Amino acid sequence: MSKRQLQNFHKPHLIPERLLARLSIKKPSRILVNFMGELFGDWVDPEQEVVMLEKNKHIENAFQLRDVVFDVVRACPQHTFVFLTKNPSGLVKWSPFPKKCWIGVSATDYRMANHARYYLHQRQAQVKFLSFEPLLGHMRDRFGGIFNLLGEGISWVIIGAQSNPTVFPKIEWILDITNAADKAGIPVFIKNNLKPMLGEIVRQEYPKE
């Protein structure tokens, strides 16, 4: 589904060899699912029929896209599969997620974070997280209240800067999030692209499985 793989990247595609490659990885790993695309876009139908060719056989079988993706997840219990979207409403059509799935939403400011939290709260997954990358605004509402991470099932937070061009967030924006996460007992992963401004303060914590 990515630009790197196909010339016609405007239309959803399944690349079987990319999907099934995870079956051959034995070492427990975190697999980032379709991070160069948008699996949960409104233009992607999880019930659309896809054709898979059985290995070493000339037999074509048709399956629903959601079943194909989740069957690979279930066949690899040693791995953790990380899903990230900019379209949190699209998670509705895919939930519930199998075990070993982490689902997250990108949010750049307070409005997007509130929107993301609403949809994550209603979805079923082992880990639900917010990715503030790039962090482009503060996490305070119009009344000055700090974004509250507590009680919404959020169990991981990622913070990062904008790349190409590089735009660093304000220190107080980062502190608002880390302080709220610490209060809620939520691990924080600060991306390496913030090291130029944070130095050794960078934290890279993961949620417990």
Structure description:
This protein is an alpha/beta fold. It has one domain: TIM Barrel (Alpha-Beta Barrel), CATH 3.20.20. Helix content is 22%, strand content 19%. The chain has 5 helices and 8 strands; from the N terminus they run αβββαββαββαβα. It has helices at 16-20, 65-75, 110-121, 171-184, 195-198; strands spanning 30-33, 49-53, 60-64, 80-85, 101-106, 127-132, 156-159, 188-190. The radius of gyration is 18 Å and the shape is globular.
Provide a compact summary of the structure.
This protein has 209 residues and is α/β, with parallel strands linked by helices.
Topology:
Layout: H1 16-20, E1 30-33, E2 49-53, E3 60-64, H2 65-75, E4 80-85, E5 101-106, H3 110-121, E6 127-132, E7 156-159, H4 171-184, E8 188-190, H5 195-198
Parallel strand pairs: 1-4, 4-5, 5-6, 6-7, 7-8
Antiparallel strand pairs: 2-3
Give short descriptive properties of this protein.
TIM Barrel, single chain, globular, alpha/beta, six-stranded parallel β-sheet, disordered N terminus, 209 residues, 19% strand
